[in-house]
Amino acid sequence: MNYHPRRILKKDSNQLMVTVKEVMSRRFVSVDPDECIDDAIQKIVRSHQTGAPVLNQRRNPVGFLSQKDCLKLVTNLRYFNGFPGTVEDYMTSNVKVLQANCSLFDAVQAFIDNWYHAYPVVNESSAVIGLLTRRRVLDYVNSINQTSWFDMNSAVDGSY
User: Fold this and answer.
1) What range defines the domain where residue 142 resides?
2) Residue ranges of the chain with pLDDT lower than 70?
3) 84 close to 73: Cβ distance less than 8 angstroms
């Protein structure tokens, strides 16, 4: 039989109260806007991240360098045959971030609504303190055996 019972929230759990800060990775690679793009690509490849936040000296995000952004280097070298450039030349400057105290459910919705594979996580001072990836969220959800978020309001008040 191919029937799998629906995974549900447990009444006595705090699964709905989980924040991004609790799931994010605190160990992540970041890059500097003035860094050579070749060095940044090596960092991303070695870290197995899908990209890296670009941070200023105060650790505030000024951009994000994705794998897709890095692939632009290939076309630039082919057509322009010049110096590879810096991270700032290739990064996406309109960076989207998640607040550390944001609910995991809201973060999941952000991943669904956008094509991003990772979000920098910021504190109250807008400094990047972590990175939340799709993979990290899936690992977390899988670890608590939950795939159904069903009616969030009834789960919170215990009326499910």
Assistant:
1) 15-157
2) 1-16, 80, 82, 146-160
3) yes
